[in-house]
Structure formats: C-alpha cells, structure tokens
Amino acid sequence: MTHHYPRTAVAILTAATVLGMSLIIAPSAQAQSSQWALTYLQSSQVSAISTGTGVTVAVIDSGVQSVPDLSSALLPGADFSTSSSSSGNGQSDLDGHGTGIAALIAGDGTSLSGLAPGAKILPVKDTTGQILFPASVVAAIDFAVANHVQVINFSQKISTTPYPTIAAAIAAAESANIVVIAGSGNDGTAQVDYPAAYPGVVAVGATDQSGAVWPDSNTGSQVSLTAPGVSVDVENETGLTGPSNGTSISTAYVSAAAALIRSLHPTWTAGQVISDLITTAKPGPGQSAGQRSDSYGYGVVNPLAALQAAEPAQTANPLLPKAAPTTQPRNGPSAPTVAQDPGTTSGSSNTGLYFAIAAVALVLIIIVLVLRTRRQADRP
C-alpha cells in the first residue's frame, strides 16, 4: 500500500540537517593524489586478510549512482524518498551524498578506493536530498532487514530527538543480527544525533590526520568509535572527486571495517563484531585500552587489529543496556530460589502448614479432655 506524506502530517527535515558532509568538488585527476585515510587505516595490510567479499552493506541515504567505482558492487535497491512503497531501485542520486559514502566503503579504485572493495552495496534511498520523512526511514530499514544485509550505514542526521517508529525499526534490525552504524553529527555539540543515539547503534565521530577529534564532531555518552573524517577525498554522483569533512565519512569507514570482519568471520554475531571493533580501537589521547570518552568513544577504529583479534566471548551487543534482574533484593542478598513442583498448585503448597495446625489443635483437645476427666474423678 502506498502512503504519501502531506507536509503537515510528519516532521520534515531540510537537506542541511539530513546530510552529513560538506563536499568540495575538484577534477578527479587532481583528487587521486592522496587517500590519506586508507593509509592511516593500513588498507594494504587489511586487504591481504579481508576485502569484505560476501557481505552486503545497506547504504540508507540519498541513493547511490552507478559510477564506475561502484559498477561491480551495486545491487538493485529501493527508493522510499517520497513514499513508504518503493518507486525505484535506489540507483538515482541527485545529491551525491549516498554515492560518496558507498564509494568510501566499496569503491574499486577507478577514481577512489573503498576500505572494503569486495563488499556489495544495497542502495536504499530515503531522501531526495531536500526533505526526509520519518516513515521513509522506517521503510528503508525494513527493506534492508528483509534483504538480509549484514551492515546498515546511516550517514544521516534524522533528528535531535527520538522517533518511536524509527527506534522500533532499528531494534528490529539489531534483533536480525545486523550491525547498525551511524554518524554522531556535525554540529560540534555535546549531543549525539539520532539515529546514532539509539540503543545498540555504533555512533561514530570524526578525526583528522593526526588522530585528533574534529571540532565539529558531536560528542556525548553514546559515541562508540571515531574514524578519519577530515579532508578525505570523496566522489559525487557524476564521478568527480574532492575533499570533504564529516562524521558521514567516518561512519562509512567503520561500516567498511564491520564488513571486513563479517566477511572473515561469517559466523560471528553482530554483537561480536561490535565488541571486536571497540576492544581493538586505538585509544585517543589520555585513554587506555577499554576506556571510553565522550569524544573518542572507545578510540579510533583499527581494522587491522580487529581482523587479527580472537573471537570475542560476548555474543550480545555490548552497546545495548543490560537486562535488569527480574527480582530486586530487599535488605541484603536475595534468598535462594526454591523450585516448585510443576504439578503443585498455590493452594496445595500450604498443605504442610494445615497439617501442623491440625496436629496442634488435636493435642490441645486431648489435654482439655484429660483435665476434664481428672476433675470429674476428684469430685466427692
């Protein structure tokens, strides 16, 4: 069923709010000189271990144009930019944002190389680059889940407050064993944007060539990781490349790292992939391994170390809140639980008590009768 969204019925966000990187286009011949982020992330050593083959990454964004870098990676997707029913295959991008993100993940090196060039890209268009409807986001997530992707890349800011329908869709994706990754935002504030702030999502901030956090990268308690995102060459929908800044870029690199791990370890759960990413991250200044900060999260993503690490023992998503205990202790430790016979009812569980009361009553009756008999015997 097709639903069209009147402007008065749902929240509408402008492209400046929705899309998360600023792009400066230069002729491609000039732009091929350096991809410092790949050097920083040790891509040549990484590619000897994994290229992401066999893994599909859903890029939920402005669409992905079939530029030469992506011709072998792009799958037929969907277009929910104007309706909750798809009106296309997602391979149309008038904005260039989604194309740039996809190339950073899986570009084959024609103009730019991705960190996971063996991965496939499922383009799921949820915005024209001008407006974005929350219902489109939900439809896009549902489509990605139905197509059994292993990673979802959200290089978008949807809002600064949660939408229950989007939260439910993301929770369903996480339950389907999908690693969901999103940018923390480019406002330079201490508030992580949604969808990055939803529970279980890997929220990614941006760093520069020195490993320092980009001043415009949003910080906060939900930040999980950081990755290169400053002066990184990206590609637009026409195939031109140029330098860009933003947590969108950082998100693409973390999504690529997740794809590399899922390719090498196809039996690992999404929780194990996330655990691997955060435990192998390179600590930021003042951090030690395993510590997190609101600026760096657990550190800068380190795909080589993640690929070399042993299988994490924890299979659940470490970013989800731990389940609360079903009973709370009152004063001190809880009493040991006593298992009840499944055939025992609540009434019969007091049978022993009833027998004890009856026995006491019988003893009292016998004592009364004995005393009465003695009194009668003592009468003249």
* Weakly predicted, low-confidence segments: 1-19, 22-33, 326-360, 375-380
**On the 0-100 scale, what is the average pLDDT?**
83
Largest sheet: 7 strands, parallel
Shape: globular
Strand fraction equals 5-15%
Widest beta sheet: strand line-up: 3-4-2-5-6-7-8
Instruction: Please give the alpha-carbon distance between the first and last residues.
Output: 104 Å
Helix content: 25-40%
Question: What's the SSE pattern?
Answer: HEHHHEEHEHEHEEEEEHHHH
Overall strand count: 10
Number of DSSP helical runs: 11
* Structural class designation: alpha/beta
Radius of gyration: 30 Å
Detailed description of the structure:
This protein is of the alpha/beta class and 380 residues long. Helix content is 30%, strand content 12%. The chain contains eleven helices and ten strands. The strands form two sheets. The protein has a seven-stranded parallel β-sheet, with helices on both faces. The chain has a three-stranded antiparallel β-sheet with strand order 1-10-9. The longest helix has 28 residues, at 351-378. It is globular and about 50 Å long. Residues 1-19, 22-33, 326-360 and 375-380 have low confidence and may be disordered.
Reconstruct the topology from this structure.
Layout: H1 15-18, E1 22-23, H2 28-31, H3 36-40, H4 43-47, E2 56-61, E3 78-79, H5 97-106, E4 120-125, H6 134-146, E5 151-154, H7 164-175, E6 179-183, E7 202-207, E8 223-228, E9 232-235, E10 241-245, H8 247-264, H9 270-279, H10 303-308, H11 351-378
Parallel strand pairs: 2-4, 2-5, 3-4, 5-6, 6-7, 7-8
Antiparallel strand pairs: 1-10, 9-10
Helix pairs in contact: 5-8, 6-7, 8-9
